[in-house]
Amino acid sequence: MFRKGLYAIILTVISSSLWAETTIIGVEIPGLHQKDGGGVYDVIINGALVSTGMAKLKVLPPARADADFEACQNCCYSPANKNPEFYSFGSDIVESEPMDVAKVYIFSPPGKGVYSSLQELKGKKVATRHGMNYGKSFNNANLKVSAANSLEQNIKKLEGGRTDAMVAFIPDAYLTFKSMGKSEFPHAKDKPVAVHKDALVCRGVSANFVEEFNKKLKSLSASGELDKILNGS
């Protein structure tokens, strides 16, 4: 009886670990990860992982998302990667294929010339978003920043002359300009400050978790559905 009871307990533990949901922590970014689940990465992750019962998605503001991922033992973080320009993750982190590629640009006020390097921002007031990681090169530039909670606020500050420039990721910024009914502000499209692969990074997940996500991404790409999701068509 004892051996049968022990065997049942072991089976329960194994079964629970196999089917345990992995939490995916999404950084709240308009158009990409949204609390209402309407961001393009929400759509991709919900379709590939959440709908199958493999994961649950939790969207949080940037600083809170960083803290939660740092503290977790079985979770993923999105969008992120293992590029040392942006992150200093340990060796226990695995990275998926990217859902898309983001770029950091310097935006000028409407009607003004473009900035093509961080050095040109010395002595300028630069709009940034609280908790957003623009890369170590940006951090090391020691610029005068004016942080806000949203891209909308930063665009209004730049337009109103309260800041001299704005640093932001695309496609985030493009999506926000579009939602505000504005044309893109001037920026050097051929000179991004940094390039960021928008992937999942995971800690403590099952061996096939990232592999399964990569397979779903490959299938979406081959069918043309991934482009449709990313382009909102």
Structure description:
The chain is an alpha/beta fold and 233 residues long. The protein folds into 2 domains: 2-101 and 196-230, Periplasmic binding protein-like II (D-Maltodextrin-Binding Protein, domain 2, 3-Layer(aba) Sandwich); 102-194, D-Maltodextrin-Binding Protein, domain 2 (3-Layer(aba) Sandwich). 35% of the residues lie in helices and 24% in strands. Strands 1, 2, 3, 4, 5, 6, 7, 8 and 9 form a 9-stranded mixed sheet that branches. Strand 1 (22-27), helix 2 and strand 2 form a beta-alpha-beta unit. Helix 2 (40-50) crosses helix 7 (209-223). The longest helix has 18 residues, at 2-19. The protein starts with a helix and ends with a helix.
At CATH level 3, the topology of the largest domain is D-Maltodextrin-Binding Protein, domain 2
Shape: globular
How many whole angstroms does the radius of gyration measure? 20 Å
Q: Terminal Cα separation, in Å?
A: 61 Å
Quickly count the helices: 8
Percentage of residues in DSSP E strands: 15-25%
Sheet with the most strands? Answer: 9 strands, mixed
Number of domains: 2
What is the CATH architecture term of the largest domain?
Answer: 3-Layer(aba) Sandwich
| Mean pLDDT, all residues | 90
Helix content: 25-40%
- Report the structural category: alpha/beta
Query: How many runs of DSSP E, i.e. beta strands?
Result: 9
SSE arrangement:
Elements: H1 2-19, E1 22-27, H2 40-50, E2 55-60, H3 62-71, E3 75-80, E4 93-95, E5 100-107, E6 125-129, H4 136-140, E7 144-148, H5 151-159, E8 165-170, H6 172-179, E9 194-203, H7 209-223, H8 225-230
Parallel strand pairs: 1-2, 1-3, 6-7, 6-8
Antiparallel strand pairs: 3-9, 4-9, 5-8, 5-9
